[in-house]
Design goal:
This protein is mainly α and 126 residues long. The chain is 73% helix and 0% strand. The chain has one domain. The chain contains four helices and no strands. Helix 1 packs antiparallel against helix 2.
Length: 126
């Protein structure tokens, strides 16, 4: 079955939620630079949103949308690239790293498209 088992991606989503809350708190209370705080808040917001979307995939699967098992790979990879690049720049990484941030955004979009495709498997008889 590989690495992307429901157990593994739900564990990674829980870790992602923890990191998102911690980074959001750090942005609110531990950063003086307004641009760095903005990057941290944006990364935390998108990270949290997509960890929650990963948990939603479990519900989709339980109601018959089995193709939803493919979406977490895109959501969680997107969190690493999108949020991770913003976090890194906020912490002093070179600004050119921002050029990879949109790759994470594209992964988010693919995850949502996969989830929409998966939804077609819910209640197919109606």
């Amino acid at each position: 079955m590989g690495f992307w088992t429901r157990r593994n991606w739900m564990t990674l989503a829980a870790i992602g939620g923890f990191v998102s809350v911690a980074v959001g708190a750090f942005a609110a209370h531990g950063v003086q630079d307004p641009k760095a705080a903005e990057w941290l808040r944006t990364g935390a917001s998108y990270g949290f949103m997509h960890t929650m979307a990963t948990f939603a995939c479990a519900t989709f699967i339980n109601v018959g949308a089995l193709r939803a098992r493919h979406a977490p790979a895109f959501f969680l990879s997107g969190v690493v690239i999108f949020s991770g690049s913003l976090y890194a720049m906020a912490l002093g990484a070179p600004r050119w790293l921002g050029a990879v941030t949109p790759i994470g955004g594209v992964l988010f979009l693919i995850g949502w498209a996969v989830l929409g495709w998966a939804a077609r498997g819910v209640d197919p008889q109606t």
